[in-house]
Amino acid sequence: MKDGTPVLTEDQASMEQTSYDFIAKNSDLFPSTDKSKVINLVDKSVTTKHYISDENDNTVMAVYPGASGEIFEGDVATVIGVPIANFSYENVSGGYTNTTLLAASFLTKENQ
């Protein structure tokens, strides 16, 4: 993930050292198929309103080292991860979209 961060962010960002240290210390959790192993590590003060999407369509990108299965646009998923970096990219409207890149530990599609 450290080597991939510059590629994914078009050389705008590198992995924060704090994120690197956490992932290295907990490498057995990347990926994890057991939500109970990662849920106690979650900082509950950080919620979806901090990262997912806002009124300007700023978003989150998650890198998951496991098999994500059949998750498509419009699906609802639970993602637990570590923020790696913040970056922006030019969107099709000519503006910029701000994005948080996550290293996802746990990912599952919710039943709808």
Strand order of the largest sheet: 1-3-2
> Considering DSSP H and I runs of 4 or more, what fraction of the residues is helical?
10-25%
Mean pLDDT, to the nearest integer, reads 82
Radius of gyration: 14 Å
Secondary structure tally, helices: 4
- The N- to C-terminal Cα distance equals 31 Å
Structural class estimated from helices and strands: alpha+beta
Q: What spatial form do the alpha-carbon principal axes imply?
A: globular
Biggest β-sheet: count, sense, barrel?
3 strands, mixed
Kindly estimate the percentage of residues that lie in beta strands according to DSSP: 25-35%
**How are helices and strands ordered from N to C?**
HHHHEEE
Give the beta-strand count.
3
Low-pLDDT segments, ≥5 res:
none
Please render the helix and strand layout as text.
Blueprint (H helix, E strand, L loop, with lengths): L3 H5 L8 H9 L9 H5 L8 H4 L7 E5 L13 E14 L5 E14 L3
Parallel strand pairs: 1-3
Antiparallel strand pairs: 2-3
